[in-house]
Amino acid sequence: MIPGLAYAVIALAAAAGIWGLLTAVLDKPPGKAQLLFAALVWLVTAAQSVIGLVRVATGFRPVETATTIGYLVGVLFLIPLAWFWANTERTRWSGVVLAVAALSVLAMTLRLLGLWTAVPA
Q1: How would you classify residue 62: left for phi > 0, otherwise alpha for psi between -120 and 50, otherwise beta?
Q2: pLDDT tens across 2-54, in order?
Q3: For FRET with 35, which of 1, 42, 84, 94 sits at 20 to 30 Å CA-CA?
Q4: What is the dihedral of CA 53, 72, 1, 117, to 10 degrees?
Q5: Which of 1, 22, 11 is nearest to 102 (CA)?
Q6: DSSP string computed for 60-106
Q7: DSSP of 17-67, one letter per residue?
Q8: CA-to-CA distance for 25 and 22, rounded, in angstroms?
């Protein structure tokens, strides 16, 4: 993982989460710009996951390897599932779904940073 890229994922996911909650509060479905922003969040997240998986495959061993791999793979599914839901069900709750996915990506990325930078005992 690249810490700078991880912080970019965290910032983008936070913005996407706030945007999703804002659309729900305003009782509007997510618009095209919001869906495109969610796709951007996924692209940056995917880049980070690929880099992390390549590093693990080439010999880097985080403190909890299985947990790290699970997070690196699992985080890839959140935004696409939320994006598909938000794109097919055009209600205010789609914004909440996008927000939950984005905030989950944020939390998982923070956990990945902790796993990645932890010093073995």
Answers
A1: beta
A2: 889 999 999 999 999 999 999 999 999 999 999 999 999 999 999 999 999 99
A3: 1
A4: -120
A5: 11
A6: ---TTHHHHHHHHHHHHHHHHHHHHHHHHS-SHHHHHHHHHHHHHHH
A7: HHHHHHHHHTT----HHHHHHHHHHHHHHHHHHHHHHHHHHTT---TTHHH
A8: 5
Exposed e or buried b for every residue in 41-52, given b needs 16+ CB within 10 A? Answer: bbebbeebbeeb
- How many domains, the chain? 1
Q: Tell me the pLDDT tens digit for each residue of 69-101.
A: 999 999 999 999 999 998 898 888 999 999 999
Instruction: Please name the residues in contact with 52: beta carbons below 8 A apart, sequence gap of 6 or more.
Output: 1, 68, 72, 112, 116
- Domain containing 71 equals 3-117
